[in-house]
Amino acid sequence: MRKKCTNLPNCPPFVLAWECKKSTLSNKFMPKRTDIQTILIIGSGPIVIGQACEFDYSGTQACKALREEGYKVVLVNSNPATIMTDPEFADVTYIEPLTVDALEKIIDKERPDALLPTLGGQTGLNLSMDLHDAGILKKYDVEMIGAKPEAIIKGEARDIFKQAMLKIGLDVAKSETVHTLAEALDAADNVIGEFPIIIRPSFTLGGSGGGIAYNREEFESMVLNGLELSPTTEVLVEECLLGWKEYEMEIMRDHKDQCVVICSIENFDPMGVHTGDSITVAPAMTLTDKEYQLMRDASFACIREVGVETGGSNIQFSLNPKDGRMVVIEMNPRVSRSSALASKATGFPIAKIAAKLAVGYSLDELQNDITRETPASFEPTIDYVVTKIPRFTFEKFPGADTTLTSAMKSVGEAMAIGRTFKESFQKALRSLEIGAKGFVGPAKFEEKITDLQAVRQGISIPTCERVFWLRHAFLNGMTDEEIFDLCALDPWFINQLRQLVEIEADLRKSSLPKLDAELMRTSKEAGFCDALIADLVNSNRQAVRKRREKLGVLTNFRLVDTCAAEFEAFTPYYYSSYGSENEITKSDKKKIMILGGGPNRIGQGIEFDYCCVHASFALREAGYETIMVNSNPETVSTDYDTSDKLFFEPLTLEDVLEIYTQSGCDGVIVQFGGQTPLNLATELEAHGVNIIGTSPSMIDAAEDRDQFRDILDRIDLKQPDNRIAKSQEHAYELAGEIGFPILLRPSFVLGGRGMFIVYDMNEMKHIIREVFDVAPGKPVLLDKFLEDAYELDVDCISDGETTVIGGMLQHVEFAGVHSGDAAMVMPPHTLSEAILEKVRTASYALAKELEVVGLMNVQYAIKDDELYIIEVNPRASRTVPFVSKAIGVPLAKLAARIMAGEKLKDLGFTEEIIPPYWAVKESVFPFNRFPGAPVMLSPEMRSTGEVMGLDKDLGVAFAKSQMAAKPALPDSGDVFISVKDYDKESAVKIARGLIELGFGILATAGTEKLLKANGIEVKHVCRLSEGRPNVIDLIKNNKVSLIINTPQGTVPRQNENEIRTEAVKHNICIMTTISAASAAVDGIKSIREKGYEIRSIQSYSQEANPR
């Protein structure tokens, strides 16, 4: 007789005793720990490739979870753009550099009892280990919880991990840990025996410095590079498992030794592509039940042996499709990049549960938030398929290698949910916003490509476009076997993609009147959107939708419920599908939809997600039902408890309209998600959608040259002389009218994509085609470039009657650097009060003229005391989080309430706040990921993230921003100076300042002559073309501590770029503008004289805005 389980009070009735083995481990409920009161969490710092918003999401969840339990949470992170560093999320928040020195000061001040090291990515983990190794944790009696140092070492140090796996009988790839090139060559010959060989540096992020070497020469250069990049000068050389299948297991363990698999994830791409750059699918599609059980058992054995006592871990496996050999590749003894994906895919909040396990709870004591009936010890079961596809921005790094390898290169990702792989795959492709409506791909892949050599190359070399080349392999009649031989994709995936091409062919043979219910249903269940079907049957989207509804093929919304619909789900978290019941519910509340920003990319990042989250919080507080639509799995906006309802859907017109109609929304906010929702605004309005806040026609007026010129004329404001060119020839003609230098840019793009400054007609002819190609069919804008003008960004908020300036940020660099990349100072540090007053008056006039309701960002240039308007964006800008933190006022939250009809005076914000301290924003760049691309600041944005430096002294604030952005300003050593002619005078002053601070000066002949003529002692160094030792030799020998190099013309010359690339590789501070070099000298001086203090953002906010 099978009797009911009585071990656990919260065991549901159908769980029988024999099924509940885990519950017999302990019948006693463990209370949470009461011996700790204060917990320190270290964040992951600025957004970089390999470590993005996922850790803002996990950190935010942990802060909420621990405060819920009554603990005091102290958070340290240098990133101002995240929700996590807002003052209300932790009890005490420090936006300070993530260095051992700064952390010791914080620990000394706050005296935490415990440190949770597993939620801040690799940065947080490495820094926690540094604090442990330096004896600081012991000195202040701080306990590491979640994962002990021994477990972190065992999971992270390649050789120790390998031995641990062999000890428990798990297979690992043949490998050797080496510390010198000689050891590496010996391992290649005697341990591994044949090329290709994989190189994996220890303790680096997103596989940086790693790669696959196919010959000895490549091997030597990769090993040397890896040894330089590894903080422990350690590299693992490993047998190459190219072509093997790759899987990840997201698992959790508690102190009772209960282990659960949260999610199995399969890489679409075979081994050789970093898992962050691969398309991934959950749950794993091609494992047999036996293989899955073996992998599950191996995961539990691994987490137990490594000794992660509580919390989540991510374990990667590889499987040889020929003989079934399974090897463990690596383990992350922390919440990983995939944890966010696994959480969103299953609805199981890994970081939240990990935080609670770390303070003494066990899985069976914690409730599943979604079902509210099952404990967290129930493994999630899902009855749908999730596909994640990475987003790349190679176009920003000309000259970079676009081949995908074991070093990560993607900057974001989109996720989609469907009932089948085909459906979720096509939804994910259209979520990427690269012009693809599905597997048919962007415009350049639509027509059949008959060059078989190009197709073979396209599918055999892993790139972000390989997935679209696969379609052309099918169109050209290649067999599944031929395709497999070229790319080693699992035959199951190849067959699924073939089915998509077959459905496409059926649609092409049909026409709208002939489209029957069966083909329509088949197409929709395979993820074909109405717009794509319209293209294939030569019709339009609206007509297809009408036909579809007439045939009874309706869009249904399903709930994500963690338990394959065994229990009711209480958190409305939806995805769309076809051919199944509709689970959408409606309430009587007023509903406002918030459109997110889609996948992260350079130019549209976490700052916009921050605004969307604030909008949701503010409107929920005001009594509205909030509906979030987004496709980005990394962010807080797609957490199931941020909004009343979450729709994980592509941000396309048809998807948004479907949700709007079925949910019965009263309004939509488009101005918070960056360019993505703005691009939809006009069409949404045309379809009867109520856009709240600034009207789409005014947003368009600010973008339209002619309309905007009329507005400026009406309010008597100037802009640089400008023209609109419809063609290349037209552009040449107009250039003659306005004169060089000229700023060229395409219309309607975000992040300065395709922006260039040209100094003469030759440069212009060289570049113009590229500018037109960025937005085909759209005109190109020509502006007279104001050389050496000061630039100013102003964020305002307006309710249609009152306009208040949130903050003014002066760029450190002169005009010509994209505002997303420029270092900025708030309040402005060199502009006169008279100019700032002019700026205020102009901003108020612009807000009134554009009828702004919500946020507005204006970019100004100031030259010879004249004020020019560069551009106006009546929407949230990427500086909103930074400004909000600097003044202690959540601007996005207020803006959301204003859009819903409230007034600034009722919200208590009617006067500009000028902080009585300095806030410096510095950008962080991914140049180390793209060797060969120009290392430069320009009108095109290239930064992935930002940091904040706060202090009463401007020099110290700047120095702190450099410490946080890394590399920090040096304290001693030799400085290499090479500047363009225009900067020579300033260079003399800078060199004097450096000499006074005890630095040595290095220069090549031209600059050396100038400095010596001004009485400055200089050490001569050869130009790259004139012999050795040159500056690159000195960089490699660690003889240069700072480089000041300002380029002549738009692009650094070849030799300048070689110097900069080498400096990036060796982590040497580079200043590419003379104004930044000057700020650096002030920063070094201030830090030396005054040191720096740490101070919480709450105390800064209180000082700026006493409440």
Describe the structure in your own words.
This protein has 1107 residues and is α/β, with parallel strands linked by helices. 37% of the residues lie in helices and 18% in strands. It contains 38 helices and 38 strands. Strands 14-13-10-11-12-15-16 form a 7-stranded antiparallel beta sheet, with helices on both faces. Strand 1 (38-42), helix 1 and strand 2 (72-76) form a beta-alpha-beta unit. The radius of gyration is 29 Å and the shape is globular. Residues 1-28 have low confidence and may be disordered.
Which helices and strands occur, and which strands form pairs?
Blueprint: E1 38-42, H1 54-68, E2 72-76, E3 92-94, H2 100-110, E4 114-116, H3 121-133, H4 136-139, E5 143-144, H5 149-156, H6 158-167, E6 175-178, H7 181-192, E7 197-201, E8 211-213, H8 216-229, E9 235-239, E10 245-253, E11 259-267, E12 280-282, H9 289-306, E13 311-319, E14 326-332, H10 337-346, H11 350-358, E15 385-391, E16 412-418, H12 421-431, H13 443-446, H14 452-460, H15 466-475, H16 480-487, H17 491-509, H18 517-525, H19 530-536, H20 541-550, E17 556-559, E18 573-577, E19 591-595, H21 606-621, E20 625-630, E21 645-648, H22 653-663, E22 667-669, H23 675-686, H24 696-703, H25 705-714, E23 722-725, H26 728-738, E24 742-746, E25 756-758, H27 761-774, E26 780-784, E27 790-799, E28 803-811, E29 824-826, H28 833-849, E30 853-863, E31 866-873, H29 880-887, H30 891-899, H31 904-907, E32 918-924, E33 945-951, H32 954-965, E34 974-978, H33 984-996, E35 1000-1003, H34 1005-1013, E36 1019-1020, H35 1031-1036, E37 1042-1045, H36 1054-1065, E38 1069-1071, H37 1074-1090, H38 1097-1104
Parallel strand pairs: 1-2, 1-4, 2-3, 4-5, 18-21, 19-20, 19-22, 20-21, 34-35, 34-37, 35-36, 37-38
Antiparallel strand pairs: 6-9, 7-8, 7-9, 10-11, 10-13, 11-12, 12-15, 13-14, 15-16, 17-18, 23-26, 24-25, 24-26, 27-28, 27-30, 28-29, 29-32, 30-31, 32-33
Helix pairs in contact: 1-10, 1-11, 5-6, 14-15, 19-20, 21-30, 23-24, 26-27, 32-37, 33-37
